[in-house]
Amino acid sequence: MNKHESAINTTYFSIVGNASLALIKWLAGYFGNSYALIADAIESTADIFSSFLVLLGIKYASRPADKNHPYGHGRVEPLITFLVVGFLITSATIIAHDSIVNINTPHELPKPFTLIVLGLIIIWKEISYRIVIKKSIQTNSSSLKADAWHHRSDAITSVSAFIGISIALFFGKGYESADDWAALFGSAFILYNSYLIFRPALSEIMDEHIYDDTIELIRFNSLKVKGVIDTEKCHVRKIGMSYHVDLHAIVDRNISVRDGHEIAHQLKNKILEELPDIADVFIHIEPN
Question: Are residues 84 and 225 in the same domain?
């Protein structure tokens, strides 16, 4: 199974999980009289749509390079991540608005059974986060990483809901709004996570210099190639799940063009062999 197939299967896992949990949260929140759970359900519902976006993005990114897209279609991944962040911010805004309204509106205490539901949800969402984040690292997918952080943010908002409902039930009358304060806190955390997801995607689409470890590995393996004296410029850009490299290699100035050309081929093959996440390498030969 290649990286794109693995990422697609993981996204299907997220969609099914989010749809199931959204339904459970809506029912438990409505019958359990808990706005924190309903707020959680709003986020999970948004997560379903964002996971669909991630799925479409990964499928589009897996298309091979063509005449109009010589570097492939991978740049759609950070664009999808921006849309996912938009869903998160919209969810946080709706939750915060409704929480403030409910804080000022008298209502009944939440039902005790909502704590059991939340406890199970917290465990499941943390497991989901670990599964998806592991796959995002294996596939090098920024949009899958955003999807993973959806699971983690969902788990933490569920923790805040659990705390809010516990306070309301423990202290009783007069503390009904603790549930709503928990939802408000959860919305703030969603906004914070939105920034954590947005920043790496922005770096990717702007070709920011953030791949020092990869560059060190490229330089290290380059010196193993016979005829390469040293390396000069080395630029790395991430496109989708792979990297593209521009490398200047220093060789003996007295060798022929044919020999320089052969060294460049050997160098490219060495880098692609040692670093499988690199899709292509452009080699420029510099005389010593």
Answer: no
Confidence of residue 107 (pLDDT cuts 50, 70, 90): low
Measuring CA to CA, which residue among 237, 236, 4, 274 is closest to residue 136? 4
Last residue of a domain, one of 205, 235, 256: 205
The mean pLDDT value of the chain amounts to: 86
pLDDT at 16 over 80: yes
**Does one domain contain both 177 and 94?**
yes
Judge if pTM exceeds 0.90: no
What is the tens place of the pLDDT at every residue in 183-217? 788 788 888 888 888 888 888 888 888 889 999 99
Amino acid 91: pLDDT: 78
HEC-encoded secondary structure of the chain: CCHHHHHHHHHHHHHHHHHHHHHHHHHHHHHCCCHHHHHHHHHHHHHHHHHHHHHHHHHHHCCCCCCCCCCCCCCHHHHHHHHHHHHHHHHHHHHHHHHHHHHCCCCCCCCCHHHHHHHHHHHHHHHHHHHHHHHHHHHCCHHHHHHHHHHHHHHHHHHHHHHHHHHHHHHCCCCCCHHHHHHHHHHHHHHHHHHHHHHHHHHHHCCCCCCHHHHHHHHHHHCCCCCCCEEEEEEEEEECCEEEEEEEEEECCCCCHHHHHHHHHHHHHHHHHHCCCEEEEEEEEEEC
Range of the domain at 33: 3-205
- For the cut 80, the answer to whether the pLDDT of residue 113 exceeds it is yes
Residues 158 and 228 in one domain: no
Q: What CA–CA distances, in Å, run from 259 to 230, 245, 253, 286?
A: 16, 22, 11, 13
| 230 and 110 co-located in one domain | no
CATH no. for residue 187?
Answer: 1.20.1510.10
Domain stops at, among 205, 232, 261? 205
